[in-house]
Design brief:
globular, binds flavin-adenine dinucleotide, alpha/beta, 12 helices
């Protein structure tokens, strides 16, 4: 099923994300994670793509497992370090496997990376155009409530985002954030600027102290004082921190929904217990 269909009518949706293993011999355990997570009935499940595209087959394999578990898959695809031929190969593989949803991404710029002359893709909008020309895919794109780190301004970032939508992105998934006000302001600005596709809020449950440092480094997102106090109080006790992280994420989702944001994507980090705990905390809300 196309994700644009799932998101239409502004129904409440909660989706999950998994990442493929780094080595092939771990593929079966990742598939087991997918099967377990599918039991919590997410609206769809996305699978990330290795930065350099070297393990693209792993992403397709996991997307297939999502499909076989009865959940709609969304396959991520990055383009920056791939040739046009490689993109054609991967998109063709997805098409052959009846995977019809692709999150079209540029990918982060590796340190010391120089754009080769023959490089075809510099930005995600070019990948969107390429995928669109290759078949009847439902294409999504990434967005950044606290501005993409390379952008000079919010205005510029939103103009580039609007262009991705104009090229054919039919939904957007946001970078993680911990302060709902940041997302709500961004959401409003997108609407003012004419971005009218569903904008899915990306929520990362922080369930251990190491994860928060890494998440902030990667995402450039701000962390409210309330969250730091939770870290200070519970960071040294793994079980308490996990519980607090689940509750924080659940509260964030409830507050977003109370503000009219009905589409949530949880960065579940291959943790079925965390995914289920959040879903349990939302059981009546999801089925309202
Ligand atoms: P783009 O939309 O191309 O934007 C990149 C930068 O270029 C922005 O600053 C933008 O404002 C600017 N820009 C865009 N268009 C133009 C233009 N026409 N002219 C000038 N500047 C322009 N990475 C992975 O490696 N694998 C994944 O699976 C993955 N999944 C992700 C999922 C989500 C929901 C998000 C938010 C990010 C994900 N990433 C992933 C990270 C992503 O690849 C990086 O954030 C990357 O730096 C930007 O990707 P993009 O698709 O947003 O790029």
């Amino acid at each position: 099923m196309k994700i644009s269909e799932i998101l239409k009518d502004n129904k409440v949706t909660v989706s999950f994300e998994v990442f493929p293993p780094k080595q092939w011999d771990k593929i079966e355990s990742t598939k087991a994670v997918v099967r377990e997570m599918s039991g919590a009935s997410p609206a769809f499940m996305s699978v990330t793509y290795g930065a350099a595209g070297t393990r693209s087959g792993f992403t397709t394999e996991i997307a297939n497992e999502i499909k076989n578990s009865g959940v709609t898959p969304l396959s991520h695809l990055t383009c920056l370090t791939s040739t046009r031929d490689k993109i054609h190969e991967v998109v063709g593989e997805l098409r052959d496997n009846n995977i019809e949803n692709i999150l079209a991404l540029r990918g982060d710029i590796p340190e010391g990376f120089v754009f080769p002359d023959k490089q075809y893709f510099e930005y995600a909008y070019q990948l969107i155009n390429e995928i669109k020309a290759m078949g009847d895919f439902c294409i999504g794109a990434a967005c950044y409530p606290e501005i993409h780190p390379e952008s000079k301004s919010r205005i510029e970032d939103i103009e580039h985002l609007k262009y991705k939508v104009d090229c054919g992105a039919s939904f957007l998934t946001s970078q993680m954030f911990f302060d709902n006000e940041k997302f709500l302001n961004f959401y409003e600005m997108c609407r003012i600027k004419g971005i009218d596709v569903p904008i899915i809020a990306g929520i990362m449950p922080i369930t251990n102290a190491v994860q928060i440092k890494r998440s902030i480094e990667l995402s450039n997102c701000s962390v409210p004082k309330k969250f730091f106090r939770i870290m200070e109080r519970f960071g040294d006790n793994p079980e308490s921190m996990k519980q607090a992280g689940i509750v924080y994420a659940t509260e964030q989702i409830i507050d977003l929904m109370a503000n009219g944001v009905n589409n949530i994507h949880i960065y579940t980090m291959n943790k079925p217990d965390v995914a289920s705990a959040i879903m349990n905390g939302l059981s009546h809300i999801i089925n309202e």
